[in-house]
Amino acid sequence: MILKVLTYPNKILYEKSAEVTKFDEELGKFLDDMYETMINKKGIGLAAIQVGKPIRAIVINLTNDDGLQDKNDLIEIINPIITRKENLTTFQEGCLSVPGFYEDVQRAENISVEFFDRQGQKQTLDASGLLAICIQHECDHLDGHLFIEKIGYRKRKKFEKEFKEKQKVK
To answer: Which residues bind Fe cation (predicted)?
Structure first.
């Protein structure tokens, strides 16, 4: 089922998400719905809070070498804890909750993350490049933060101005 993606400035996006404690069929169905929603909206990552559910769950599906999102490459991350961050890099980010806006954001290039899968099994993942960026971006959502908070004062003012202009047009 395609879920409604909340967009800026919805206050729910600024809530801190709660840890998942029940790894059951309901969670699995919700993760499936998150995946379907992310693909439908042409995203590569989605946090549960973006569809109005304040739990610490993320789905990520990057494109492969053929430019396709293969469901076999889907990563489901529940209750993530980033345990290592190394090297800084700058990457142009966008967000399904801030549609149509892209800006350079500085993040760690290499990370390690501990998390649980949908069955409640503990996992560890070392990530670099786009995957590391995406995990950090989605983890920010779980803590109630949007990428536009990381872009600096002048760029943020530019975003606010563009956002207000778009609202007038609607």
So the answer is: 95, 137, 141
